[in-house]
Amino acid sequence: MTKLLFSDIDGTLLRKDGTISPTLARKLREMGQAGHGMILCSGRPLDGILLVQSYLESLSIHFPYSYVIANNGALVYDCNEKKAVLEDRLPIELIPRAQALAKQYHVHLQTYTDHEIVCEKETPELLHYQTHVKIPAIFAPDYTKALSRPPFKMLALSLDGSDALKQFRMQIQTALGDGVQTMFSGAGYLEIFSAQASKGNALRFLCDYLSVPVSDSIAVGDSENDIPMLLAAGLGAAMQNATETVKSSAGFITALDHEHDGLAELIDTYIL
Question: Which end of the chain offers a freer environment for a tag, N or C, measured as fewer CB atoms within 10 Å?
Fold first, then answer.
């Protein structure tokens, strides 16, 4: 029976240095050769995921399906046809409200065009983010002036682990209303996106779109924004380095973390 693996990227597929081990590369190649599929599913914007997709292809890792899930499920993209098959954008009028609140709490806030980060100025948070997600930034005091259409998400970042981001999270929900949700995608990374979007909804949509039974899907991740897809999949798996909340939502927890082939362990146990 073929399986469809929905894998988070940061803290799951990739090590801290942005690479995968030779062991994991071998397991992924074996998966593809056996006819199993893998869908990259991330909070990253599309271009940030396509860079990872290209990296895997450079290692001769190929799968039957060529789709990715970006922006926490707000975008499902067909890489072969180069088109969106599902998208859910934020109302652009919410951006100024979020900007004002971010300034009040001294939180770095960025949004995105289709190919660039949009933020007010270069900050340590932006530079840190760009070490992992290598896409260019443009600077604009009013983000809406840089956007030709509504964005998929906003991202608030904090490097110091202060309470400012938690306080900002409590206030941003009230400020933007029920049409928006917030989830952490990693320590200091607060995602702000449509309340109708989630990795879980995207998983269910893509399984239906590809005529793959949801029962044949496996989802794996490490952060709060992965929980919806862990609950939606036939099997939800948490990495050893996942937060306790994520682990409590999983049917399987790897013994190894993302630095030590935890994903290869999952593939060996449930797919190959």
Answer: N
